[in-house]
Amino acid sequence: MAELLRLLLNVSEKAANVARVCRQEAPLFELLVQEKKGDDKNKKFVQDFKTLADVVIQEMIRHDVGVVFPELKDFIQGEESNKFENGLGESVTVTVCAREQETAALLATVLDEDQTAAALLAKAIHQDLQLRDVAAEGLQQIPLSPADMGIWIDPIDGTSQYIEGKEEVVLDGGFCSSGLPCALVLIGVYLRATGEPVMGVINQPFHHRDETGHGWKGQHFWGVSHGGLSACSVPRPEHQLSDSEGGACLSAVLSSSEKPAVKEALAPLCPGKSLMYASGAGYKILCVILGLADVYVLSEGSTYKWDSCAPHALLRALGGGVVELRTRPPGGDKSQVEVPRGAELTYHKPNTGSRGADRWANQGGLVAYLDPKVLSRVLEQLTGKI
C-alpha cells in the first residue's frame, strides 16, 4: 500500500495539471462547462456545474490506478457521471484510452471537433508526472491490502470557485475565504468492510502564482491511518487545548450559508473574528488539518463521501476525525475525552431510500476536528440549539 500512496500522489499531480491546463485559455474553458441536471444536481446551489476537467480527471485517476492495481478497478467511485453532451447534442462517454492519440480522438467528439484543445488535454492526461515526496517514499510497509480497499474521487472539489476563477488574496497564516485556492483534488481510500478512511491525498492546484506570474503552482498533502500506523505530511499544530483551557476561545470555519442558529450557538465559543467563512467542503476540512481553524461545522446534508473521505483520513492520522453533527457529546472525564463509538463518518454504504448523488450524502451534517476536547465543547454548545 506504500506503492498505492505514491501512485495517488502522482495521479493527483497529473489531475492538478489538467485543472490548470483547462483554465489557461478562456475560449477552451467556455467549452468545458455544462449544467448538472436531475439526480446529479447538488441541491445546495441554484446552479451546479460539472466541467469536462472534472470528468477527465476522474477517469484519468480511475484508469491509472486500475492499470497498476486491477483489483481496485471496480471499487473506484467519483462524483461525476462520465457522460458529456457536446454542441450537437450527442452524448459521449469519456474514458481514458490506452494511447494518447485515441484519447485525443475521443475528446475531440466532446469538444465539437476542436482538435487543438483535444490534443492539449490528451497530452496532459497521458503525461508521466512524478511527484517527489521524501516522507511518503520513506513509508515502506503499510499493513493494508488493495483487495480490501475502495476509493472516492472528487476531481475538483469547489467546482464553482474553479469556474469563477477569482484570484483571492491569501491572508496571513494561509486562510483564503474563496477563489481558486479553495479548489482541490481529493482522493480518499477506505476499507470496504467497515468504511473506515485509511488513506487520503489532497492536491491544491492553485496555491500561488509561479515565477512568471502567468502560471500556477500547487501544493499537496497526504495522510495514512490504520491500526498502529499514523503518518501525515502535515505536522500536528503545536497548540492544543490543555485541561486548564476549558474556556479557551476557539476558531470555527463555516459555510456562509450556514443556519443562523448554528452561528449564534457557536458565537460564544468563537468571539470576534474567530468565526470564519470559506468556500468548498474539502477546503474547510483542510483548514482544520492545517490548524487554520479548530473545527468545521456543517448542519446540512450537502456534502458527500467524495468531499470528506480524503481529508478525513488526514485528520485521523493527526488524532482527529469527522463525526455526524447529531453525535451526542461524550461524557465522563473531560481530560480524557473519547469520541463515541460509531460516530465517525464511514464510506462504504449508500443511504437507504435515496437516489442519485443523495445516496452518498453525509445526511446528518458533520463536525471536523483535530482535538477531541474541542469536539466535545462544540457538541455541547450545539446540543438543543439546532
Shape: globular
Distance between the termini: 42 Å
User: Which band does the percent of strand residues land in?
Assistant: 15-25%
Helix-strand topology string: HHEEHEEEHHHEHEEEEEHEHEHEEH
Features:
single chain, 386 residues, alpha+beta, six-stranded mixed beta sheet, five-stranded mixed beta sheet
Can you offer a commentary on this structure?
The structure is a single chain. The strands form 4 sheets. The protein has a 6-stranded mixed sheet, with helices on both faces. The protein is an alpha+beta fold and 386 residues long. Helix content is 31%, strand content 20%. The model is unreliable at 44-48 and 241-245 (pLDDT under 50). The longest helix is centred in the first third of the chain and has 23 residues, at 2-24. Helix 1 (2-24) packs antiparallel against helix 3, helix 4 crosses helix 5 and helix 9 runs parallel beside helix 10 (305-317).
